C-alpha cells in the first residue's frame, strides 16, 4: 500500500479527525443552544452626522466643514459616515488656546472586532512624534446616557500629546494634544483594548457598531496644556454628547429588544 495512504488511514490520524469533527459539532451545538450570534448585523445611524443641528450645539459655532476628496484616503478610513468640523467656542476669549475645537466623528457598523484608525497610529503615520499618553476619565453632565449616575457620565478618554518638527531649526518642536474615545454598542471605551473587550461581551447581540469621537483644541495663541484640554473637553462634551445620543447614534438596546420580539 502506498506509504502516503497508510499515513492517512493510520490510527492517530483517524483519531485526530474524529476529535476535530466532534469539536466542530460541539461548537455548533453550543452556539445554537446559547443563541450566540457570531456575525453581527449592521445598524444605521438615526441621522447622518452631517445633519447635526448646529443650533443644538450652541454656544459652539461651526466655522469649517471638511470632506475627504482623495478616494484612497476615504477607502483607508473605511467609512463614509464621518464629519470633520471646526467648532468655535464663543464663550472663550479671542486668544484662548481652546477657542477652536477640531472635531472628527466616524461611524462603523457590522464590524465584529476590527477598530481602525485610532490617533496613536494616524498621527504617527503622518510624521508626528508621540510624546505622552494618558488614560483618564472625564465626568460629564449627560443625563440621557444609559449609564449616567445622577446625570453624570464617566467618559473614559485617551489624551495623547504629539509634536511636529518646527520649520525653523532654531525653535523647539511644537506640541499639540489629541483626545478621543469610542462608543461601542452604546458603551464608552477610552482606547482600542477597552473597545475590543466591550465588543467581546456582545455575544448574544444581533447588532454591532462603534463610533470614534476625536478632537483637539487650538487657538490664536497656540495649543493648550493638558489641564486646559481636560476642562475644555468637559465643556464641549456636555454640549455635543447629548445631541449625538438623542439624534444620531442608534438606540441599540431598543433595536435588540425589537429583534428578540420579532
Descriptive notes:
The protein has 262 residues and is α+β, with helices and mostly antiparallel strands. The chain folds into 2 domains: 3-33; 49-261, no CATH class. It has helices spanning 3-8, 11-33, 71-77, 119-125, 192-200, 226-247, 252-261; strands at 60-66, 82-89, 100-109, 129-141, 152-164, 174-184, 187-189, 209-218. Strands 1, 2, 3, 4, 5, 6, 7 and 8 form an 8-stranded antiparallel beta sheet that branches. The radius of gyration is 24 Å and the shape is globular. 26% of the residues are buried. Residues 23-36 have low confidence and may be disordered.
Question: Helices, strands, pairings?
Answer:
Elements: H1 3-8, H2 11-33, E1 60-66, H3 71-77, E2 82-89, E3 100-109, H4 119-125, E4 129-141, E5 152-164, E6 174-184, E7 187-189, H5 192-200, E8 209-218, H6 226-247, H7 252-261
Antiparallel strand pairs: 1-2, 2-3, 3-8, 4-5, 5-6, 6-7, 6-8
